[in-house]
Amino acid sequence: MHLIIVEDLEIDREVLANLILDDCSRQEERADLSFYSSGEDFLAHYRPKSCDGLLLDILLGGMNGIEAARKVRESELYLPVIFTTSERDYAVESFDVKPTDYLVKPLQQEKVARCMERLRE
Question: Based on C-alpha coordinates, what's the Rg of the chain?
Fold first, then answer.
């Protein structure tokens, strides 16, 4: 499973990556992770059909995660998009891009595991 994580804070990238890798290890599954620290950098390198899921922080410097997801939706209507954020205030707006999940920081293992199960489906 190849997942892309777009997160501007290194500590949050590490926490999310470790939670995903722990879950995949429990499922005896391998995860390949790619990382970007901004929406602009992600979109400059993104190619449709290049991943199985996209995990986007909403509060990025510059372009926010919802804006980046809108750009992705122009070419990929069904790619699973999971938002990660410390702000609950964007939940309603995020539904414009039909996310698979909305994870509120601090991230919890059981919620990431539930999200990973949705990705596997």
Answer: 13
- Work out the widest C-alpha separation in the chain, in whole angstroms: 37
Q: Which tokens in the block code for residue 89?
A: 């205030």
Strands of the sheet containing 32-36, edge to edge, are: 32-36, 2-6, 53-57, 81-85, 101-104
Which of these, 1, 59, 63, lies nearest to 32 by C-alpha position?
1
Is 0.90 topped by the overall pTM? yes
pLDDT in tens, 11-51: 999 999 999 999 999 999 999 999 999 999 999 999 999 99
> What is the crossing angle of helices 109-120 and 10-26, to 10°?
60
CA pair distance 3, 22, nearest whole angstrom: 14
